[in-house]
Amino acid sequence: MQTPTFAIAVTLEIKPECVELFRRRIQQQAKDSITQEPGCCQFDVLIDEAEPSVVFLYEAYVDAQAFDYHKQTPHFADYDRTVGPWIVTKQVRRLLMLQANHR
Predict the structure, then answer these.
(1) What pLDDT digit, counting tens, does each position of 45-69 carry?
(2) In the chain, what are the domain boundaries?
(3) Where would a tag sit more exposed on the chain, N or C end, judged by fewer CB atoms within 10 A?
(4) HSE of 103, CA atoms in CB hemisphere, 13 A
(5) pTM recorded for the entire structure
(6) CATH class, 6-96 region
(7) What is the pLDDT of residues 18-37, one digit of tens each?
(8) Residue 44 pairs with which residues in a beta bridge?
(9) 51: buried, middle or exposed (CB in 10 Å: 19+, 13-18, 0-12)?
């Protein structure tokens, strides 16, 4: 496994009527990112326990350039176009890895 130095944390609020559609689509996006992008080290999808319409994404990349590449892939363009209308709010944080801890 490559060592990530850069991460993205995304918090999304999804329209309640679109939650199931979004969950299926984001799981495919996570799989596509891991399998098709050599610089994507991790792509976790988490659901807020108290608010099922709130989704948290944690994505770790080899570096910021790998994330920039991610945003230019056809699978990202398709994902972004598809889920855009389903999103109420979106907060993206760009993070530098202080230390990666893996088993």
Answers:
(1) 999 999 999 999 999 999 999 999 9
(2) 6-96
(3) C
(4) 0
(5) 0.93
(6) alpha beta
(7) 999 999 999 999 999 999 99
(8) 58
(9) exposed
